[in-house]
Structures are given as structure tokens and as C-alpha cells.
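Handout, section B. The chain below has 126 residues.
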Amino acid sequence: MIKAVGTQGSFKTDFTNGKISSFSDTTPDKGGSGEGFRPHELLEAALANCMNMALRMLAANHSIPLSSVETTVSLNRSVPGEVCFEYSVALTGNLAERDRQRLMEAVKSCPVRETLSKTIVFREKR
């Protein structure tokens, strides 16, 4: 669970999971300071981080010689009624083609991607 609390003055918002804290904000043109991640960037970060971790875990668990992984994600909302997470993956290491293919297939099933691919329902918790 994440708890978010707005700070006074601007739109800077502190958030925590109870152990780790950070903050987000909006851009100056929308009244923010621009010092924190914007909320949509946090969605992009969740997916990029999950894909990156999933690939490294798979490589570690199956002795795949993966040296590093770079994942990038951007949220494209240019088509009305559609949300598209566009991503790229750069794999570094002495990888056999079958290992590279296995890793690229695995990126499609990271837990955050699986969550975002399901029907999403919003329910106020009381």
C-alpha cells in the first residue's frame, strides 16, 4: 500500500510504503516545481523496473550470462481511448540467440505488465 500526502504550497506530494519515502510533483506550467517524478512517469517507472528485474532474475536463475539490461518505457496516450506503453530492451552479455529470445519473451510476462494488461477496476476503500 502506498500513502500519499500533499505538501503545502505547491503540488509536491510525498509518498511512502511505510519503509521508503519519495515524492512526486507536476511540471511548472501546471503549478508544480518540476522537482519530482510526474504521476505518469511513476507508471512508466513501475513497468520499466519490473521488466528489468524480471530479466535479471531469469538470467540469474538459469545461468544466462547477462551482463546488464537497460529498459525504457514511455506512455503514449495520443490515440483517444487507448493507452500504449512503448518499451525497448537492451541486453548486454555473451548471449546465445536462444537465451536472447528467451529473455525477450520473458519481458512480456513481468508482474506489472500482467497487472496492467488486466481489466482495471477502481473501488473506494472505506
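Note. The domain at 39-116 is CATH 3.30.300.20 (GMP Synthetase; Chain A, domain 3). Compare this with the example in section A.
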